[in-house]
């Protein structure tokens, strides 16, 4: 993610959290790129108790050797296959790309590691050539491939078609991942479409953090798999929100309040109709229980609040929600909320005290 730098201590802390979360594979770094990434991969191999550790490597001898030296369980080899990348970035022909990919896979296999091969910019590649590349690396020993939507230009229907094409073009037993970017806000949808078409796994990031618009968000994809598609993973759902907040803190990037699943407002309610429904039965306005993903329900007081929200807030603070007091608070909310950032319990207690003082009474929680 642009502008984010983590030291080894931070990387290890996040690694442990991901391992406890129950993810299957953690890509811990790009050993050829820096000393800290090499050490991060080595430390990850030692620290992880459940997850397998992958190391990234371009399709070059040095990169593959560095990934192997870091003792990664999986060497993730990649090379671009789209015409625009081959012409302007790699300056290689299609034949040269295939040769380079095969040599890198064979070199990685010689170390005894599992090899994951990614055709960078797969969704903008010629489909026929893409299949040709995948077949070549599978013949070279790769049993694990990835289909990346590198710049997020795929649509769900195209992703479904492409994964189906690749799935049907490779021998049984080859594992397929999808890796989707969020440039058009479609990363989660494209990921689910890929799974629907026969992909076996997903490559995701916590909070969707990543290059440009980011990647498919781990918490969104996992929750959708479990609650919408009836599929199970090894991920511990109740840790999704705590892990999200840990990564956000380490990155120094605040999670948007309206972020699906893990955002502060993901299960927050202010509108009177919504609050009334949720307090009677949460299923009226919540698709899942917030606790299932480690989040919590919030009833927010504001100018859109109704009687039910005020009664709930007063009761929660220990005050009896008598009709006159509720009306007084509602009037205060309509008047003050538009110019206040939030109405907290101190503000509410002050309004209760004001109401009681006007009537010669004292505002004491539990005695009003």
Please tell me about this protein's structure.
- This protein is α/β, with parallel strands linked by helices and 368 residues long.
- It has 2 domains: 8-251, Aldolase class I (TIM Barrel), CATH 3.20.20.70; 268-358, no CATH class.
- 45% of the residues lie in helices and 12% in strands.
- It has 14 helices and 9 strands.
- It has helices spanning 8-21, 35-47, 61-69, 83-90, 94-110, 127-139, 156-169, 187-196, 218-227, 240-251, 272-280, 307-316, 323-336, 345-358; strands spanning 25-29, 52-58, 74-80, 114-120, 144-149, 175-180, 201-203, 268-269, 298-299.
- The protein has a 7-stranded parallel β-sheet. Strands 8-9 form a two-stranded parallel sheet.
- Helix 1 (8-21) packs antiparallel against helix 10.
- The longest helix is centred in the N-terminal third of the chain and has 17 residues, at 94-110.
The overall number of domains is: 2
Helix and strand content put the structural class at alpha/beta
Tally of extended strands?
9
Q: Using the alpha-carbon principal axes, give the shape.
A: elongated
Taking the sheet with the most strands, its summary is:
7 strands, parallel
The SSE string, one letter per element, is: HEHEHEHHEHEHEHEHHEHEHHH
The name of the CATH superfamily of the largest domain reads: Aldolase class I
Architecture blueprint of SSEs:
Layout: H1 8-21, E1 25-29, H2 35-47, E2 52-58, H3 61-69, E3 74-80, H4 83-90, H5 94-110, E4 114-120, H6 127-139, E5 144-149, H7 156-169, E6 175-180, H8 187-196, E7 201-203, H9 218-227, H10 240-251, E8 268-269, H11 272-280, E9 298-299, H12 307-316, H13 323-336, H14 345-358
Parallel strand pairs: 1-2, 2-3, 3-4, 4-5, 5-6, 6-7, 8-9
Helix pairs in contact: 1-2, 1-10, 3-5, 5-6, 6-7, 7-8, 11-12, 12-13, 13-14
């Amino acid at each position: 993610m642009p502008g984010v730098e983590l030291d080894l201590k931070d990387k290890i802390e996040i690694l442990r959290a991901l391992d406890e979360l129950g993810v299957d594979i953690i890509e811990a770094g790009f050993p050829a790129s820096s000393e800290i990434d090499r050490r991060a991969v080595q430390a990850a191999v030692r620290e992880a108790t459940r997850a397998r550790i992958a190391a990234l490597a371009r399709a070059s001898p040095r990169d593959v050797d560095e990934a192997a030296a870091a003792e990664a369980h999986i060497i993730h080899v990649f090379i671009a296959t789209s015409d625009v990348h081959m012409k302007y970035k790699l300056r290689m022909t299609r034949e040269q790309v295939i040769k380079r990919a095969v040599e890198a896979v064979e070199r990685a296999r010689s170390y005894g590691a599992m090899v994951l091969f990614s055709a960078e910019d797969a969704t903008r590649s010629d489909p026929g050539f893409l299949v040709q590349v995948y077949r070549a690396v599978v013949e070279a020993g790769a049993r694990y491939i990835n289909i990346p939507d590198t710049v997020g230009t795929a649509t769900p229907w195209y992703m479904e078609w492409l994964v189906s094409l690749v799935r049907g073009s490779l021998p049984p037993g080859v594992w397929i991942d999808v890796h989707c970017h969020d440039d058009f806000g479609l990363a989660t949808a494209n990921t689910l479409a890929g799974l629907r078409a026969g992909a076996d796994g997903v490559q995701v990031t916590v909070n969707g953090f990543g290059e440009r618009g980011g990647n498919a968000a781990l918490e969104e994809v996992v929750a959708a798999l479990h609650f919408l598609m009836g599929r199970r993973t090894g991920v511990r759902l109740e840790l999704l929100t705590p892990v999200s907040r840990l990564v956000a803190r380490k990155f120094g990037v605040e999670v948007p309040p309206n972020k699906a699943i893990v955002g502060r407002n993901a299960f927050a309610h202010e509108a009177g109709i919504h609050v009334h429904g949720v307090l009677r039965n949460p299923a009226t306005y919540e698709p899942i229980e917030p606790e299932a993903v480690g989040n919590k329900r919030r009833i927010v007081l504001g100018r859109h609040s109704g009687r039910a929200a005020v009664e709930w807030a007063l009761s929660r603070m220990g005050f009896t929600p008598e009709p006159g007091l509720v009306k007084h608070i509602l009037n205060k909310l309509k008047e003050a909320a538009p110019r206040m950032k939030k109405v907290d319990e101190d503000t509410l207690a002050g309004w209760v005290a004001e109401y009681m003082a006007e009537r010669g009474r004292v505002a004491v929680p539990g005695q009003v």
